[in-house]
Amino acid sequence: MNVIIVDRKDAQISLKSELLQIDSQKIPLHLIDTLLIVGDQKLQAADLTKLSSNSTHVVLFSSDFTKSAHITTTSSKNAQLKLAQYQACTTKTLPIAKTILSRKITAHAGQLQRHEISLQTHEILCRLDRAKTLDELLGIEGSFSRHYFTHYFSLFPKVLHKGRRTKRPPLDPLNALLSWFYTLIYHLIGVRLIGFGFEPSLGFLHRPFRSHMALASDILELYRADINQFVYEIFSQKIVTHQDFSKKSGVYLRYEGRKKLWQHFREFSASLEPRIDATITEIRGML
After folding, report:
1. Are 18 and 103 within one domain?
2. What is the predicted pLDDT for the residue at 75?
3. CA distance 249 to 252
């Protein structure tokens, strides 16, 4: 997953022949899987068309990350896979959702175990196995997540958090960074799903709603523990501190803080790519 990130207020982006030019830097198009653009940078319609025909996904974010859009190839792809996915959403929702949640719970317990915090998961996994409805599964997952985050937040100094998970808006630096990285990986999973030929709006654990990519959220659940550990390392190494965040209607990472993190994020997302692709392939086999 070769992700090129443009997050400079005055960046000049254009396509010349088979090269993407960002200011004076030139990158061959065949080396770019995903182009992630933040803010008000402009691309010509012809350039966007060429990126699409090259199967380069473009993910656009507003400067405050409250709005996003994808530009992908417009050609229909893998109709048989989509049909199998539609059918599985009516016949296999519960077993696939159970698989996702059991792996999520195991991964989260493993992440805390790295910090010598032990979570007992046998009983909750048994409850998952006995669950008869999706709502019952979601209730079990919600209870586990609250318990998990109580321990997770204990790994950080108090200046970074208020002791609980908050979002829309996040109320402290720790929640802000968690939400930011969750959002980024969610979108990268989404474009990978499109590349494989899936319909990303149809999931098994998450329900379809407006523009939400439910299947991307399903797969994200399997990598939240990795993101949580990554956030722990970012703060423990003081790559960013609480001073890199600003408080408005919520708490958000400043532009200067983002600049410190992009290279780390590119390396992290690249490390997840083989596993994400393997998960997508596995889900295809479940349909």
Report:
1. no
2. 57
3. 9
Same-domain status, 117 and 240: yes
Please check the confidence at residue 266 and state whether its pLDDT lies above 60: yes
Per the prediction, the chain carries an average pLDDT of: 91
- 102-134 pLDDT, tens digit per residue, is 999 999 999 999 999 999 999 999 999 999 999
- Are residues 134 and 226 located together in one domain of the fold? yes
pLDDT at residue 1, rounded to an integer: 60
- CATH classification at residue 28: 3.100.10.20
Pair (137, 177) in one structural domain: yes
The reply to whether 38 and 108 lie within a common domain is no
pLDDT in tens, 163-172: 999 998 999 9
Q: Mark whether 103 and 140 lie in a shared domain.
A: yes
Query: Are 55 and 90 part of one and the same domain?
Result: no
CB 279 within 8 A of CB 222: yes
Of 5 and 278, which is predicted with more confidence? Answer: 278
Reduce the secondary structure of the chain to three states and give it as a string: CCEEEECCCCCCEEEECCEEEECCEEEEHHHCCEEEEECCCCCCHHHHHHHHHCCCEEEEECCCCCCEEEECCCCCCCHHHHHHHHHHHHHCHHHHHHHHHHHHHHHHHHHHHCCCCCCCCHHHHHHHHHCCCHHHHHHHHHHHHHHHHHHHHCCCCHHHCCCCCCCCCCCCHHHHHHHHHHHHHHHHHHHHHHHHCCCCCCCCCCCCCCCCCHHHHHHHCCCHHHHHHHHHHHHHCCCCCHHHEEECCCEEECHHHHHHHHHHHHHHHHHHHHHHHHHHHHHHHHC
Q: What is the spatial distance between Cα 165 and Cα 135, in angstroms, rounded to a whole number?
A: 21
How many domains does the structure of the chain reveal?
Answer: 2
